[in-house]
Amino acid sequence: MKNNYYAVIMAGGIGSRFWPVSTEKNPKQFHDILDTGESLIQRTFNRINTLVSSNNIFISTNDRYKALVQQQLPKISNEQLLLEPVMRNTAPCILYAALKIYEQNKDAVLLIAPSDHWIDDEKKFIQNIETSMEACAKSDILMTLGIKPDNPNTGYGYIQFEKSASEIKKVKQFREKPNLQTAESFLASGDFLWNAGIFVWSAKSILKAFEQHLPDMMRLFNLETPVWNTPLEKEFIEKEYQNAENISIDFGILERANNVLVLPVDFGWSDLGTWGSLHKKLTKDNNDNAVVDAKAIFRNANGNLLKTQSGKRVVIEGLDNYIVVEKDDTLLICPLASEQHIKEITKELNEKFGKVES
Q: Among 242, 257, 325, 333, which is most exposed with the fewest C-beta within 10 angstroms?
C-alpha cells in the first residue's frame, strides 16, 4: 500500500512576517529558523520521507525558487518539481499536483503539507498521517488534520467537528480567524480545532471534488490530450497557469464539499508564522529571553527574541518583550506585541530607501 503514498510539499510562500530574515528572494522555508542544522523545508522533507518514498514526494513552489529547492533537496528530480510561474494560492497548485500524480498512479493517496511548519513529535505526526492515508485509500473522503488548541489564538482559522466516539470526525463547519471573545467560546465548546492546512485524500477523490466545486479550473487543467509528465507540461503551465482562479483549497473545495472529515491531533505543532511563534519554540533563559546565533548579555531585560549574524556580541539592557533581528545591512527592533505590523514596516522601508533583498 505504501507504494501508493505520495506527498506534495507546498513551498511557494514568501513568509513576509519573518522579515528581514525571510525575503522574496530567499523566504523562510529555506532558512534554519530554529538553529537545528536543517532548513524548514529540509526538516519537512526528511520527516515525510520516513513514510513516503523520496521518489513520491513533490515540491510545489514558485519558479524563482527552483535553484534553492535543488540545492537543499538533492533527492528531488526535475520531474518532482511543480514550478508555478505566478502565485495563485493553494487550489491551482493542488490540482496541478493531483493531475500529474494521477497520471502516474490511479490509486495514489496524497498528503498535502506546508514546507515551513514545526512539529515536535514527528513520530506521532507520521502515525496520524498513516491513519489518514489508510482511511482515504478506502473511502471517498477529504481529510484535514485539526490541531487541538491550547489557547484562544486569533491568528488561526478553526474547524468545528461533530462530536462522536470515532477517532476521525465529520466536519461541521470551517470558521475564519475569530476575535478573542469568539476564540474563547470555541475553546470552551470543546469541538473546535485549529486549521493547520495539512490535508490527505486520494487523487481520485480530490479530482472528483474539483469537478464538482471548481469546474472551470478543472476544465482549464484537464485537457482532452493530457500534458502531464510529458514535454508539453512545462509549456502548458507557463501559458495557462496564470488563468487559474486565485483561490485557496479551503474556500474552493473544503467549505463546499460534504465529505470532509478531520482527525484531531496533538503533536506539538506551530506554523512558525511570526517571530512571536518562534520565540515560543526556542530555548529561553530564566528571564524568558531567546537567542539565535548571537553572543548575548541581558541586563534587566525580559521576554526578548534576539537574532543576529553568527557570533555577534550584543548587550541588551532595560528592554522587555522585543524582537531584535539583524540581517546584513538591516536591523529590526520591534515590540513582540506589534509583530503584525512587520508587513507595513517592510513596505514603508522599501518606499523610503528602495527595495533591497539578499
A: 333
State how far the alpha carbon of 271 is from the alpha carbons of 40, 169, 174, 200, 343, in Å.
Answer: 11, 23, 18, 18, 17
In 3D space, the residue among 70, 113, 73, 68 whose CA is nearest the CA of residue 94 turns out to be 113
**Phi, psi for residue 285 in degrees, rounded to 5:** -80, -175
SS3 141: coil
Cα separation of 284 and 288, whole Å? 5
**pLDDT at 301 (0 to 100):** 97
Q: Give pLDDT < 50 ranges for the chain.
A: none
Here the cell at position 253 is: 473545495
User: Which residues, at least 6 apart from 63, have a Cβ–Cβ distance to it below 8 Å?
Assistant: 83, 84, 85
Q: Which pLDDT score is estimated for 346? A: 84
Distance between CA 42 and CA 31 in Å, rounded?
Answer: 9
Q: Where are the beta strands (DSSP E) in 185-320?
A: 192-202, 260-265, 269-270, 290-292, 295-299, 305-307, 313-317
State which H helix or E strand residue 58 sits in: strand 57-62
Query: Checking DSSP bridges between strand 192-202 and strand 142-147, what pairing results, if any?
Result: antiparallel
Burial of residue 50 (number of CB atoms within 10 Å: 0-12, 13-18, 19+): exposed
